[in-house]
Design goal:
The model has no long low-confidence stretch (mean pLDDT 94). The longest helix has 19 residues. By secondary structure, the chain is α/β, with parallel strands linked by helices. The protein is globular and about 50 Å long. A five-stranded mixed sheet has the order 2-1-3-4-5, sandwiched between helices. The chain has one domain: Carbonic anhydrase (Beta-carbonic Anhydrase, Chain A, 3-Layer(aba) Sandwich), CATH 3.40.1050. The protein is 45% helix and 13% strand. Bound molecules: zinc ion. The site of zinc ion has 7 residues, from helix 5.
Length: 206
């Protein structure tokens, strides 16, 4: 796998920020009113993070990031629809972020609901279920646990974005964007990459 240089730098920065968080050495900078004032009329985030709305998943905190560093799109279960996809496209096309992180997590309520409901569409939350069921259709082993389904779903989300967004697909093809598929462990606070690119990042342990 070939990660564009700028994407790689940003990914390492985020994973090292996560390491700080995990080790209890959280020292985020750029979190005061002065930072916001300095960025009053523009933004230049390093990365776009698609994360769950879950109150325990707070990208700026787990990556030790400050104001203006992350363009965060939060939606229950990282279920992608048109608005979510266009929000990501804005970050890619207008803000030129070199990294899109898809961040699933443990104990996700959406995954639990999808497992209970599959393959039926119940009265409520149908749009969300329709965004999770394809991951189960592809691999029924996804039903074994919420966390397994969350990881399989994150992988499906990448496929969905590449298949449905010309902006995202072209950015990836042109090596302007790298999509990192990740998962947050609640017990450790650690963000794991779902694909093995650590060798390419040239860091021993993150
Ligand atoms: Zn969730």
């Amino acid at each position: 796998m070939n990660i564009p240089k700028e994407s790689k730098e940003v990914l390492i920065r985020l994973l090292k920020g996560n390491e700080q968080f995990v080790n209890g050495k959280y020292e985020a900078k750029n979190i005061t009113i002065e930072t916001l004032r300095a960025l009053a009329t523009y933004q230049n985030p390093h990365a776009c993070v698609l994360s769950c709305s879950d109150s325990r998943v707070v990208p700026e905190l787990i990556f030790e990031a400050g104001i203006g560093e992350l363009f965060v799109v939060r939606i229950a279960g990282i279920t992608v629809g048109t608005n979510v996809m266009e929000s990501i496209e804005y970050a890619v096309k207008k803000l030129n972020v070199p990294l899109l992180m898809l961040l699933g997590h443990d104990n996700c309520g959406v995954m639990e609901y999808a497992q209970e409901s599959y393959p039926e569409l119940k009265e409520h939350f149908q749009t969300i279920l329709k965004c999770v069921y394809p991951a189960i259709d592809i691999d029924k082993n996804s039903l074994e646990s919420e966390d397994k389904l969350a990881k399989h779903h994150t992988i499906w989300v990448e496929e969905f974005l590449l298949n449905n967004s010309k902006i995202i697909r072209e950015a990836v093809d042109n090596k302007k964007l790298y999509i990192a598929k990740c998962h947050l462990s609640h017990q450790t606070g650690k963000v794991h990459m779902l694909n093995d690119v650590l060798d390419e990042l040239e860091i021993e342990e993150i």
